[in-house]
# Entry
Amino acid sequence: MAMNHLDERLDEKEEKLRARMEKLDSLEKEIKAREKAMKARENAKKQVLLRLPQGLWEDISQWAGDDFRSINGQIEYLLTEAVRNRKKGKG
# Structure
């Protein structure tokens, strides 16, 4: 009889542990989904029409080539640096 009671208690504890594991799995999936959504937002790019004088375009093109970047990549790099410097109080 005592053994049967112990088995019942073990079964109850096992069921509680299973329920906790399911809850943890569910929370882990939710966290991963949120992380994925955050990364998608971070990696999302907006398109901008930018008109540049010919001379400036040529200078940026040369600079981009020196830095092994595309012209678009160079402009993005320069803008990112400008914003970073402004936030630091240098701009």
About this structure: The chain has two domains: 1-44, 46-91. The two ends are 80 Å apart (CA to CA). The chain has a mean pLDDT of 91. The helical segments are 2-43, 54-66, 71-88.
